[in-house]
Write a sequence for this structure.
């Protein structure tokens, strides 16, 4: 799932800052270490609430409800997480009336963990054994590397690859780039043809994080006692310098992502590549219908010749929220939702979910060729990418704010004041300040 | 300033305010693909047909969810504004026409309520409503919208100016009770103010977004603003929603336009009343 940060988020951020500073200052919610409580089944029939914004999830849940009369699930559809739903979860957890289950993106999970908003379901039946059913790195996202701890069940992922206009590269006689060096060289040739190789998405800082992720960088680390913030690591700097160079030479466009102009520029052949996540396949085919059949997918360009590293952009989990009266049943449902072949197939068909379960590759939806991409079996490329995503990447507990700060800096850099690296340095400092102001320990 | 210069400035600003609405109108007549590929401020060859197709899809999508949201909005805004107006009128009238201790203090407290933005109250309201287990019910949106400090202010000012004390005394001498006097005599004199309060309150509730966003989880209870917002946040997964959100936005402003046109007669006559004596 992709995140958008708008005015509402800003309004929420202001209000929640008030609420959180009042409510969490005294608590020891940052204390790490798991409390794997025994997870006992409830007696009698149970009704669970599940808040999600994945389209069609209510239809998927109907399958479950038909087979499980004793554990009925009610789906509540909400706006996507950063559009207000996360803040609602926090408010509801505070007030003790949160839904049993909620959809939470990986980059928001640490925030919920730090605010003590998640139930540890490691002790629930079947959860510990489920590790093998999911792509490695997604499991790391829901355990935070803690012992005897599982806080959510992985739902979908966003392994990244490069969408490119096979026809245009062919006509212009330009080699499809396999390294970032070749990518920059191709960018110059494409500019000479009057087009751009790609668009730099200044608002999608999580896209940029995916690039750093591919390069082996880590923005955050948690040693169980305090947080390390490292937006300015050498790996991060390499990525920033690279894109700064393309921006300075005007080799990439800077349209707002997913806007109408952005769609139009793809539709009119002004963009030759898009390094994006697996879910981008539908974004592209609906946004640029006139270019059907002309696209293909290749692995992301590499920093080292012959490398295979991939980044990840997006993805979410099904979390059991704090205060649920029925964690055992909730965990059981969450496991079913994210591993049952029938459920996965339907969630993909209706909601465009690319499952985090390793069994996804066996689904029909992901095994055949896709017409829009010239009949290429594009999901094979993404399945390989998924296996090559660094499993140890950690998100920080204040991602919404970090995104906003860095995105402001990116905007300024594009406007000509400062550089992408300046934006990261500024984001680094503001993130540390924000952690401290919420009494979250930071290692410096 | 010459007349033509004034006309020019007004013309420019009229254009400035009408352009977004014009865009909304033209874009409602396009399919998802045409939105980005055709001239943004003009129609396409088969606009009329597409518009009705869009409209049909809007009301059919998700088992008629949009119609449900419209009804919810009408209920929240219509009934809410009506009761809110009665409460504000009674309160303002009492403050204007009865002498009692603490009258000014009460009025000042109510007046300070005008200064508190509704957004800032949403979270405290949520926590209070959670305590009494009323979140995620219609009441959670309905009850807070009955309150209109600005309405009280307006009602007091207007009642003081338009309801003569002599008339009330005459009514009392004729044996009419206070409540009867209020409903049969005073409300008629205050009618223009009441219409204004109703209209303000109707628009405020219809456009209310933040409170429902915080209070409601069940989308069958959403007002149309929140519903469209939820759809809009799903466009990246379901691109067909893009055109539905746009047509939905157009449909959702129609009730406001109708309310304004229907009530403006009372309203405009009211604002001038008492201006010349």
């Amino acid at each position: 799932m992709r995140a958008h940060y708008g005015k509402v988020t800003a309004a929420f951020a202001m209000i929640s800052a008030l609420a959180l500073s009042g409510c969490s200052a005294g608590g020891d919610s940052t204390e790490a270490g798991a409390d794997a409580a025994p997870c006992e089944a409830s007696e009698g029939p149970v009704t669970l609430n599940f808040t999600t914004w994945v389209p069609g999830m209510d239809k998927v849940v109907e399958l479950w409800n038909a087979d499980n009369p004793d554990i009925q699930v009610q789906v509540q559809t909400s706006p996507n997480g950063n559009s207000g739903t996360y803040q609602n979860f926090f408010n509801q957890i505070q007030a003790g009336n949160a839904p049993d289950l909620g959809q939470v993106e990986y980059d928001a999970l640490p925030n919920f963990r730090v605010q003590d908003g998640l139930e540890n379901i490691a002790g629930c039946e079947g959860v510990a054994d489920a590790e093998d059913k999911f792509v490695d790195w997604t499991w790391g996202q829901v355990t935070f590397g803690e012992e005897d701890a599982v806080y959510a069940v992985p739902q979908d992922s966003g392994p990244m690859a490069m969408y490119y206009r096979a026809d245009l590269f062919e006509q212009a006689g330009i080699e499809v780039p396999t390294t970032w060096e070749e990518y920059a060289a191709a960018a110059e040739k494409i500019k000479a043809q009057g087009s751009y190789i790609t668009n730099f998405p200044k608002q999608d800082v999580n896209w940029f994080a995916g690039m750093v992720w591919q390069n082996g960088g880590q923005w955050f680390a948690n040693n169980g006692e305090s947080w390390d913030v490292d937006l300015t690591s050498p790996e991060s700097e390499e990525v920033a310098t690279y894109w700064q160079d393309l921006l300075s030479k005007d080799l990439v466009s800077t349209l707002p992502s997913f806007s109408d102009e952005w769609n139009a520029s793809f539709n009119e052949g002004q963009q030759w590549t898009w390094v994006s996540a697996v879910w981008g396949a539908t974004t592209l085919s609906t946004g640029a219908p006139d270019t059907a059949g002309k696209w293909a997918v290749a692995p992301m360009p590499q920093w080292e010749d012959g490398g295979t590293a991939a980044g990840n952009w997006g993805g979410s989990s099904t979390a059991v929220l704090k205060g649920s009266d029925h964690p055992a049943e909730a965990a059981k449902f969450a496991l079913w939702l994210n591993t049952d072949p029938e459920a996965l197939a339907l969630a993909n068909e209706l909601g465009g979910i690319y499952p985090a379960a390793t069994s996804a590759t066996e689904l029909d939806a992901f095994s055949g060729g896709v017409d829009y991409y010239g009949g290429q079996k594009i999901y094979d490329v993404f399945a390989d990418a998924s296996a090559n995503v660094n499993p140890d990447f950690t998100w920080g507990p204040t991602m919404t704010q970090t995104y906003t700060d860095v995105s402001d800096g990116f905007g300024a850099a594009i406007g000509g004041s400062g550089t992408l690296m300046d934006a990261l340095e500024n984001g680094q400092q503001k993130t540390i300040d924000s952690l401290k102001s919420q009494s979250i320990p930071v290692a410096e | 300033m010459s007349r033509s210069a004034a006309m020019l400035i007004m013309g420019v600003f009229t254009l400035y305010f009408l352009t977004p609405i014009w865009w909304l109108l033209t874009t409602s007549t396009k399919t998802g693909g045409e939105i980005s590929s055709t001239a943004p401020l003009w129609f396409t060859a088969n606009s009329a047909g597409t518009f009705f197709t869009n409209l049909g899809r809007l009301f059919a999508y998700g088992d008629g969810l949009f119609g449900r949201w419209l009804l919810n909005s009408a209920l929240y805004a219509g009934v809410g504004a009506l009761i809110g107006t009665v409460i504000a009128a009674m309160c303002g009238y009492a403050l204007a026409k009865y002498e009692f201790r603490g009258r000014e203090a009460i009025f000042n407290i109510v007046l300070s309520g005008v200064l508190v933005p509704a957004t800032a109250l949403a979270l405290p309201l949520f926590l209070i409503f959670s305590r009494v287990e009323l979140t995620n019910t219609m009441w959670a949106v309905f009850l807070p919208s009955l309150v209109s400090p600005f309405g009280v202010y307006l009602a007091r000012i207007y009642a003081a100016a338009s309801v003569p004390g002599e008339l009330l005394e005459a009514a009392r001498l004729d044996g009419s009770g206070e409540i009867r006097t209020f409903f049969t005599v005073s409300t008629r004199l205050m009618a223009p103010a009441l219409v204004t309060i109703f209209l303000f309150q109707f628009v405020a509730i219809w456009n209310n977004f933040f409170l429902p966003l915080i209070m409601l989880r069940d989308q069958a209870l959403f007002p149309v603003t929140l519903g469209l917002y939820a759809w809009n946040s799903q466009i990246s997964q379901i691109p067909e929603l893009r055109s539905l959100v746009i047509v939905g936005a157009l449909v959702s402003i129609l009730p406001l336009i109708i309310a304004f046109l229907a009530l403006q007669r009372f309203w405009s006559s009211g604002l001038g009343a008492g201006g010349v004596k």
